[in-house]
Amino acid sequence: MKLLKHQFWHLLCLGALLWAVYVLAGMDPTILKGEFLGFDTLFWLLLALGSPVLHQVYVLVCWRFELLHKSISRAFGKDGFRLFKIGFAILILSRPVTIVLLAISNAFTFTMNSILSYGLSILLLLPGLYLMYSVRKYFGFDRAFGIDHFYPAKYRDVPMVKQGIFRFSSNAMYVFGFFLLWVPGILGQSKAALLVAAFNHLYIWVHYYFTEQPDMEIIYGGKDNNKI
Predict the structure, then answer these.
(1) Which helix H or strand E contains 184, and what residues bound it?
(2) Is the pLDDT of residue 170 over 60?
(3) Which member of 12, 72, 127, 221 lies 3.0 to 4.6 Å from 80 by CB, making a disulfide possible if both were Cys?
(4) Other beta carbons within 10 Å of 199
């Protein structure tokens, strides 16, 4: 498998999503309204958009180089996966953090009843929290980080997880986990934060179809072992 297999489609979809954000922001000036810590909302919007792009490109490069060439393991030995996890953790945490900062900058650009706002937030938080519990108890955080790219022979015959939230979807992390990113925009009543949450939720599926799924075919031989 080539290092950049399907990445033309990744780039095309990313361009389309960014163009959609640009068009929507141009249609509604309130999306760029506000400021926080001396920086206008455009700055926080670009930061919040850059976070998922940087995260998914980081994962793409690390996973593919490791799976195809063992590059990280050769360079760092047994510490390779641990170092990859540190970078992964920092970048994935940057997603909600930057959305929160954006929501503060762009707060109250639409109106929602407070009871409805809190109710929706709880509905979105519950599956996200159940997902975290299910990953910890049944799936394992190392596997969620992509340890199978580092030790494919060891994980090739690991069975699918069907407990916890994974009973409802083998792709539970992408289906339910990204609901959490909608909460800051709802609580802060921020159009920009909701727009970036939608971008995140759509863009993660670009990662799945054009990076993760092709990798799974190599690791698991086409079996539907729920990596995510």
Answers:
(1) helix 183-188
(2) yes
(3) 72
(4) 23
